[in-house]
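Dear Dr. H.,

I hope your travels went smoothly. While you were away I took the liberty of generating a structure for the chain from your last submission, since the lab meeting agenda had it listed for discussion. I wanted you to have the full record in hand beforehand rather than looking at slides cold. The sequence, exactly as received, is reproduced here:
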Amino acid sequence: MKTIKTPIIPLKQTIVKVEGVHEPNYKAICIFAAIGFFLDEDTYWKDEKVLKPRSTYNFDVKGNIIKHNEYFNWYHRPRNISFKTAVDEFTDLFEFVIKEQSANHRVLLPLSGGIDSRTQAVALKQLGADVHSYSYRFKNGFKEDVIGKKIAEACDFKFDSLVIPPNYLWNVIEKMGDINHCYSEFTHPRQMAVLDEFSRMNGQFSLGHWGDVLFDSGIAEAYSSLSDVEIIYKKVVKKGGIALATQLWKSWGLEGDFESYFKQRIQNLLNEIDIRDKSARIRAFKSLYWAPRWTSVSLSFFEVAHPIHLPYYDDRICRFICEIPEAYLADRRIQIEYIKNRNPKLAAIAWQDHMPFNLYTYKNPKLLKSIVYRAKNKLEREINSLMGMPFIQRNWELQFLGQSNSNQLENYVFDSQFNAFIGSDVVPTIYNAFKNKDAVFYSHAVSMLLTLALWLKKNKQP
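The corresponding predicted structure, in token form, is as follows:
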């Protein structure tokens, strides 16, 4: 008998065969098109399922599941402790996890202008780890590497600035499909653009994924009056995603309507979470279904180059979160206090979400300083645009815009076999809306069409 135990938040999805006909799971693919990841146990196929998080599975000699047990359920039992105690406990636990994960090897640390990687940098500096850090930036985009370099210099880390070039997607898209098996779209993972640089590095990745979900409020204040289903719906649905999913649903002749089906799926999954606090319940939902099926899928692009470690995925961090008062988690308070306590120099470096202010000044920003910063940025973008260097904010702009990109994209999405599979009207409708109406709104839908087209190419239609 074989046994598999999945972590509370799995690093990778494990797909197993189950009873059923080997045919596409059309309803699951519609959800995938709308939100960019498969939900719960869903895969492309009716006779394949993904093992659930925080579970133990027993298999017989033929590979059939004979027993499934969930050993952990997300809960919310905040202890009556002071904020200082919460920060002290986080300090001890986080640094213990980082020390354990970084032992005996060089750490490859991606640095952004945010909080999660900065928190890792503080811990790694405190522990005296050997760190090779780096940051990305889009060509003609926001200079995220400027903040990363300042953090690296303050910590005496080696640092590389990696530029994401235009048009890289078409040289690597087939390889990307082999790596992630088309379980996430291809315009978000910037790692493939710099995979050669990664391969030349020496060490193991320490990645900051999911810290922003665990160490913040599960819901924005503007969402507090909405039902849990509506909150999840608003958080996961991508611009243009519903339009594509609805068209696919109709094209495949599925019963009912897509939005009703999708919301009922969300409600059914929420019903399984025994947490009354709205913020904690939403956080648990996202950790159960979003992290393993979207965030973790993209980790495969790092793992091609070197082993990966995720401190915020650690089971002990997940359990810690369940017992901390929501007021301490909201607004990144614990991480910010930790950074201030351990490394004031890093706290004084600008926070990208609150530019040009830092962790000391973001709560009381000076209006004049903010106006001057925005005006300077706008002027710089306008000058660059006049010089033929338009400002790039999103990865899809590098991969989809321009004639060369359009030619490559159209070769995939207008493939005759693919259009026969999804319906002859779907691609023209979505693609024309992207080209002629609202590129930002329909960019996700086009990216999902590309993903599905490559999946079909790599899988023979039964």
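Two observations you may find useful: Residues 278-298 form the longest helix (21 residues). The mean pLDDT is 91.

With kind regards,
E. W.
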